[in-house]
Amino acid sequence: MILILDNIAAFVIGAAIFLTLMVVQLRSTELNIDQTSTYMMKNQATSLSTWIEEDVLNLGSNIDKAVSVPFENPTTDSYGNTTQFTFYRDTLNTSVVPTDTVRVSTRYTLTAAGYSSNGEDSTKVFQLNRSIRFGTGSWIKDGQSVPLISVFQVDMLDQNANTVASPATAMAIDPTVVRNTRVRFAMVPPIKTTRATLNRIFYGSTLLIPN
To answer: Is the whole model's pTM more than 0.85, yes or no?
Structure first.
Protein backbone atom coordinates (compact mmCIF):
# COMPACT_ATOMS: atom_id res chain seq x y z
CA MET A 1 0.00 0.00 0.00
CA ILE A 2 2.79 2.36 0.95
CA LEU A 3 4.56 1.53 -2.31
CA ILE A 4 1.43 2.35 -4.29
CA LEU A 5 1.02 5.69 -2.50
CA ASP A 6 4.69 6.47 -3.11
CA ASN A 7 4.25 5.74 -6.81
CA ILE A 8 1.13 7.93 -6.98
CA ALA A 9 2.92 10.77 -5.20
CA ALA A 10 5.89 10.46 -7.53
CA PHE A 11 3.57 10.49 -10.54
CA VAL A 12 1.74 13.60 -9.30
CA ILE A 13 5.00 15.40 -8.59
CA GLY A 14 6.40 14.39 -11.97
CA ALA A 15 3.24 15.53 -13.74
CA ALA A 16 3.34 18.87 -11.91
CA ILE A 17 6.98 19.40 -12.88
CA PHE A 18 6.22 18.45 -16.48
CA LEU A 19 3.27 20.86 -16.68
CA THR A 20 5.37 23.63 -15.13
CA LEU A 21 8.10 23.08 -17.69
CA MET A 22 5.52 23.07 -20.49
CA VAL A 23 4.04 26.38 -19.29
CA VAL A 24 7.52 27.92 -19.06
CA GLN A 25 8.36 26.65 -22.54
CA LEU A 26 5.11 27.95 -24.03
CA ARG A 27 5.58 31.33 -22.35
CA SER A 28 9.16 31.51 -23.62
CA THR A 29 8.01 30.67 -27.14
CA GLU A 30 5.28 33.31 -26.95
CA LEU A 31 7.79 35.92 -25.77
CA ASN A 32 10.15 35.05 -28.62
CA ILE A 33 7.32 35.35 -31.14
CA ASP A 34 6.27 38.68 -29.63
CA GLN A 35 9.82 40.06 -29.72
CA THR A 36 10.30 38.97 -33.33
CA SER A 37 6.93 40.41 -34.36
CA THR A 38 7.67 43.73 -32.63
CA TYR A 39 11.07 43.94 -34.30
CA MET A 40 9.54 43.30 -37.72
CA MET A 41 6.82 45.90 -37.13
CA LYS A 42 9.36 48.57 -36.13
CA ASN A 43 11.50 47.84 -39.20
CA GLN A 44 8.51 47.95 -41.52
CA ALA A 45 7.28 51.22 -39.98
CA THR A 46 10.74 52.77 -40.31
CA SER A 47 10.97 51.74 -43.96
CA LEU A 48 7.52 53.16 -44.72
CA SER A 49 8.18 56.45 -42.93
CA THR A 50 11.49 56.87 -44.78
CA TRP A 51 10.06 56.72 -48.28
CA ILE A 52 7.03 58.80 -47.32
CA GLU A 53 9.31 61.54 -45.97
CA GLU A 54 11.51 61.42 -49.08
CA ASP A 55 8.42 61.81 -51.28
CA VAL A 56 6.65 64.51 -49.30
CA LEU A 57 9.79 66.61 -48.76
CA ASN A 58 9.93 66.95 -52.57
CA LEU A 59 6.25 67.89 -52.88
CA GLY A 60 6.06 71.03 -55.02
CA SER A 61 9.78 71.16 -55.82
CA ASN A 62 10.54 73.49 -58.77
CA ILE A 63 6.85 74.33 -59.17
CA ASP A 64 5.63 77.93 -59.15
CA LYS A 65 2.83 77.73 -56.56
CA ALA A 66 1.22 80.88 -57.97
CA VAL A 67 0.77 79.08 -61.28
CA SER A 68 0.12 75.46 -60.31
CA VAL A 69 -1.13 73.74 -57.14
CA PRO A 70 1.31 70.87 -56.44
CA PHE A 71 -1.24 68.42 -55.03
CA GLU A 72 -4.86 67.29 -55.19
CA ASN A 73 -7.30 67.24 -52.30
CA PRO A 74 -6.77 64.06 -50.23
CA THR A 75 -9.81 61.75 -50.24
CA THR A 76 -10.94 60.03 -47.06
CA ASP A 77 -13.10 57.08 -46.07
CA SER A 78 -15.65 56.65 -43.29
CA TYR A 79 -12.86 55.71 -40.87
CA GLY A 80 -11.09 59.02 -41.41
CA ASN A 81 -8.26 57.40 -43.35
CA THR A 82 -6.80 59.04 -46.44
CA THR A 83 -7.61 56.70 -49.32
CA GLN A 84 -5.85 58.65 -52.06
CA PHE A 85 -3.35 61.50 -52.21
CA THR A 86 -1.72 62.74 -55.41
CA PHE A 87 1.06 65.32 -55.49
CA TYR A 88 3.61 66.71 -57.92
CA ARG A 89 7.16 67.93 -58.38
CA ASP A 90 9.14 69.04 -61.41
CA THR A 91 12.56 67.80 -62.45
CA LEU A 92 14.85 70.21 -64.27
CA ASN A 93 17.38 69.35 -66.96
CA THR A 94 19.70 72.37 -67.04
CA SER A 95 22.08 70.78 -69.55
CA VAL A 96 19.82 71.91 -72.39
CA VAL A 97 18.63 75.38 -73.43
CA PRO A 98 15.94 76.21 -72.64
CA THR A 99 15.80 74.15 -69.44
CA ASP A 100 13.72 71.02 -69.90
CA THR A 101 11.05 70.39 -67.27
CA VAL A 102 9.36 67.07 -66.58
CA ARG A 103 6.49 66.76 -64.13
CA VAL A 104 6.69 63.79 -61.77
CA SER A 105 3.39 62.75 -60.18
CA THR A 106 3.22 60.55 -57.09
CA ARG A 107 0.05 58.87 -55.89
CA TYR A 108 -0.67 57.07 -52.63
CA THR A 109 -3.66 54.72 -52.65
CA LEU A 110 -4.93 52.94 -49.54
CA THR A 111 -6.65 49.59 -50.08
CA ALA A 112 -8.41 47.33 -47.58
CA ALA A 113 -6.44 44.20 -46.63
CA GLY A 114 -8.79 42.41 -44.24
CA TYR A 115 -8.37 42.12 -40.49
CA SER A 116 -5.56 41.41 -38.05
CA SER A 117 -6.65 39.32 -35.05
CA ASN A 118 -5.16 37.69 -31.96
CA GLY A 119 -8.26 35.64 -31.21
CA GLU A 120 -9.70 38.18 -28.77
CA ASP A 121 -10.04 41.31 -30.90
CA SER A 122 -9.56 42.25 -34.54
CA THR A 123 -8.32 45.37 -36.30
CA LYS A 124 -9.17 46.44 -39.84
CA VAL A 125 -5.92 46.78 -41.78
CA PHE A 126 -4.90 48.40 -45.06
CA GLN A 127 -2.07 48.45 -47.56
CA LEU A 128 -0.52 51.64 -48.92
CA ASN A 129 0.36 51.52 -52.62
CA ARG A 130 2.68 54.02 -54.32
CA SER A 131 2.51 54.87 -58.02
CA ILE A 132 4.43 57.41 -60.09
CA ARG A 133 3.95 59.02 -63.49
CA PHE A 134 6.37 60.97 -65.67
CA GLY A 135 4.80 63.75 -67.69
CA THR A 136 1.57 62.53 -69.29
CA GLY A 137 2.65 58.90 -69.33
CA SER A 138 0.98 55.97 -67.64
CA TRP A 139 0.95 55.38 -63.91
CA ILE A 140 3.62 52.92 -62.79
CA LYS A 141 3.34 50.97 -59.55
CA ASP A 142 6.48 51.75 -57.57
CA GLY A 143 6.26 50.26 -54.11
CA GLN A 144 3.85 49.29 -51.39
CA SER A 145 3.70 48.85 -47.65
CA VAL A 146 2.97 45.65 -45.78
CA PRO A 147 -0.81 45.14 -45.36
CA LEU A 148 -0.70 46.03 -41.67
CA ILE A 149 -1.65 49.73 -41.60
CA SER A 150 -4.54 50.53 -39.28
CA VAL A 151 -4.45 54.34 -39.66
CA PHE A 152 -3.23 56.54 -42.53
CA GLN A 153 -3.97 60.25 -42.64
CA VAL A 154 -2.62 63.12 -44.73
CA ASP A 155 -3.51 66.71 -43.80
CA MET A 156 -2.42 69.98 -45.35
CA LEU A 157 -1.72 72.64 -42.72
CA ASP A 158 -1.49 76.42 -42.66
CA GLN A 159 1.28 78.41 -40.95
CA ASN A 160 -0.42 77.91 -37.57
CA ALA A 161 -0.57 74.12 -38.02
CA ASN A 162 -4.34 74.18 -38.55
CA THR A 163 -5.86 71.77 -41.07
CA VAL A 164 -6.90 73.47 -44.31
CA ALA A 165 -10.23 72.25 -45.67
CA SER A 166 -10.18 71.52 -49.43
CA PRO A 167 -6.51 72.55 -49.49
CA ALA A 168 -6.01 72.36 -53.26
CA THR A 169 -8.96 74.68 -53.81
CA ALA A 170 -7.76 77.02 -51.07
CA MET A 171 -4.22 77.11 -52.46
CA ALA A 172 -5.50 77.91 -55.96
CA ILE A 173 -7.00 81.07 -54.44
CA ASP A 174 -4.09 81.88 -52.10
CA PRO A 175 -0.78 80.11 -52.90
CA THR A 176 0.57 80.86 -49.41
CA VAL A 177 -2.26 79.31 -47.40
CA VAL A 178 -0.84 75.76 -47.27
CA ARG A 179 2.60 75.60 -45.65
CA ASN A 180 3.05 72.04 -44.36
CA THR A 181 2.07 68.44 -44.99
CA ARG A 182 1.27 66.27 -41.98
CA VAL A 183 1.41 62.50 -42.39
CA ARG A 184 0.34 60.07 -39.70
CA PHE A 185 -0.01 56.31 -39.70
CA ALA A 186 -0.32 53.39 -37.31
CA MET A 187 0.84 49.84 -37.93
CA VAL A 188 -0.02 46.59 -36.15
CA PRO A 189 2.41 43.66 -35.68
CA PRO A 190 2.49 40.88 -38.29
CA ILE A 191 1.84 38.29 -35.56
CA LYS A 192 -0.48 39.25 -32.72
CA THR A 193 -0.33 37.39 -29.42
CA THR A 194 -2.62 37.67 -26.41
CA ARG A 195 0.26 38.99 -24.30
CA ALA A 196 1.78 41.36 -26.83
CA THR A 197 3.93 44.08 -25.28
CA LEU A 198 3.29 46.43 -28.22
CA ASN A 199 -0.07 46.26 -30.00
CA ARG A 200 0.73 48.91 -32.61
CA ILE A 201 3.25 51.58 -33.49
CA PHE A 202 2.40 55.19 -34.35
CA TYR A 203 4.23 57.58 -36.69
CA GLY A 204 3.65 61.27 -37.28
CA SER A 205 5.60 63.96 -39.09
CA THR A 206 4.93 67.51 -40.28
CA LEU A 207 7.00 68.47 -43.32
CA LEU A 208 7.48 71.93 -44.81
CA ILE A 209 6.41 72.43 -48.43
CA PRO A 210 9.43 73.86 -50.30
CA ASN A 211 9.11 77.34 -51.79
So the answer is: no
Model pLDDT for residues 73-120, shown as the tens digit of each residue: 999 999 899 999 999 999 876 666 677 789 999 999 999 999 887 656
**Can you say whether the dihedral through the CA atoms of 134, 139, 141, 145 is positive or negative?**
positive
Residue 55 DSSP SS3: helix
In sequence order, the 6+-apart residues with CB closer than 8 A to the CB of 120 are 194
Asked whether 71 and 94 are in contact (CB, 8 A), the reply is no
The per-residue pLDDT for range 17-70, each reduced to its tens digit, is 545 545 555 555 555 656 767 777 888 888 899 999 999 999 999 999 999 999
Would you say 164 and 154 are in contact if contact means Cβ atoms under 8 Å apart? no
Kindly report the length of the chain. Answer: 211
Cα separations (Å) of 165 from 63, 72, 162, 175?
22, 12, 9, 14
Contacts of 142-145 with CB under 8 Å at 24 or more apart are 143/51, 145/44, 145/48
- Residues forming a β-bridge with 134: 104
Distance separating alpha carbons of residues 4 and 153, to the nearest angstrom: 70
Cα gap 119→198, rounded to integer Å: 16
